[in-house]
Model the fold of this input.
Amino acid sequence: MKTKTAQSVSEKSVQSVPVNTVQSVSKKSVQGVPAVLLGLCPLLCVCANVQSGFATGVIALAVYAFSIPVLSLADRIIPGRWNAGYMRIFLLAAASAGWSVLAGILLEAFLPALYAQIGAYIPLNVVFCVLLDLSGISAAWNTAALSRKLADGAVFILTLTLAGLIREFSGAGTVCGVITLLPAWITPVGIFTRIPGAFLTAALILIVCNAWRTAGNVNECAGAGNADGYAGAENVNGYSGAGNADGYGGKEDSQ
Amino acid sequence: MTESAIVLVVTAMVTQAVLSKMGGVPEMRSVSGQMKQFAGLGGMVIAVTTTVCALINLLDTWVLTPYELPYLRVEMMALLTVCGAVVAERVMKCGCADTFPHAGSTFALITGNCAVLGTAVLCVEPGESFVQSVATGFSTAVAFTVAGILFAAIRGRISDEDLPLPVRGIPVLLLCGALISMALTGLNMLM
Done:
């Protein structure tokens, strides 16, 4: 009985993921972190100021920009029957781990102050889910896929920088570490530069995004009772076809 | 042994991986208010994280440190995490598919989980004893599971509240997370 159920679940997930999920997730992922809520780890853990937010976004995208060609090359070299979802994730993890280590070495050599802030988190690039999602949509180099990745990447960097800006301004009263905007008699709320401030900032960004969306259409409020708006708030399959490893390496676009 | 026990308690209850170091927060948003479902994922995260920490300690002791290959550490951790996720998904699909309807998502939820790799990268250091590494991995994963169950319980309680539309769902969950995190920050400062 159990085996039958497992088989049916497996078959169902294999059938259900490819085209529709990839398309719907890619539509939502263009709206970036606030829309699909992927990539909260970097948003929350390292973006305590503008520089660290921007640098984290740029490094993460650079790592994946260099890793995707490896995946694309593997598509051509590895025989089809071996080139399943798991194999693609293994290759992606290996490639991105290598590039992450290199990025860490370069950052330590050329920007040691920045490395002191974000260096410990650079290896975690390997498991940033928003980037696994980005690279999983397609390893193809056609114009549509590339422009979609660029748009996603730009939104990812912007969101991290915005979070850094809010936290730095509220917590220290400065922007980019040098421009002091608050008058001396106003004391910044120091908690914003710490972890609870990260939660508050993320909540604030989401509330503004939700209010923006609900202003247009109440029914499309992301996560406000409608899980689909969050692409996975209630439905874990929102993890870009997470029901199946192929969801990360949908091959429809790469053909 | 006493040191490992202290590591176990402090890491699980005070130095919370999720609420103090932010690892695995995206997984928190996938909890649907059903604690049982998250407990299944939490169990798998505990198994995978503990195994990865144990194996990386052995690799450190026998291969990476003697042959001076520290740059391969992250590579090994990443591959071990993916391997662990594959095994966890197979186990969930075969053993618990009828109990946990989202068992098929286990692979993604573990591979894309910063708490798993983050524990290995940030908490397990070369030169630690095997028992200490295992204790660190286990307790951090327990911390993740505790936080997840906590979030699931909060979500279950607030889902019926009449909140303003933009605040409903994840934003209010994050606000609750901020409050809990403030409490844990206070505890950390006391230590």
Notes: Confidence is low (pLDDT under 50) at residues 1-35, 218-255 of chain A. The longest helix of chain A spans residues 143-172. The two ends of chain A are 38 Å apart (CA to CA). Chain A touches chain B through 71 residues (CB under 8 Å).
